[in-house]
Amino acid sequence: MRELVYYVAVSLDGYIAGPAGEFDAFLSEGDHMAAINERFGDTVPTDIADALGVSRDGGMFDTVLMGWNTYAVGLPFGVVSPYRHLRQIVFSRTRTVTGESLEVTAADPVSTVRALKEQEGAAIWLCGGGALAATLADQIDRLVLKRNPVLFGAGIPLFGPRPYAPERFEEVGTTTFESGVVLSEYVRPAAV
In what residue span(s) does the Bacterial bifunctional deaminase-reductase C-terminal domain sit (predicted)? Predict the structure, then answer.
């Protein structure tokens, strides 16, 4: 069965973006970049990967899931299909757009993920945002957090509001880089 992997950059105080969706405070240069891009090259937008020569041959992911706000970051720059090398599914009840390898859907995210997990293929990348992550929390098999050495103070939390219901994940690996970025990976205990 395919895994749903929430792979995301996060501040020390638990935010994946600033209040208006800002993410430029996350470190985009440093010793962590080569190592992370080697393993997670599939998560680099198609045009940026092509320009930087980042390989997407790892085959870790073949599908990316996004909420509308996460997806819409590129629209002001004319980027309609940011991850053309992946199947892109964007969840929105009110908006639509068409693009290469892009599907915008009002379908239930949980039902969609359950159906995707039953299909053949590589892992499914949950790109964001926090509200979608909260909706899909029970479906997440693996968390990969790129903790950046920065405090936001406010913004979009790693998980949007959800009821108090502690769930334990097991750490399967942590790498600390000189840049201060810490890459930590966790899985649900049943998946260990």
Answer: 4-183
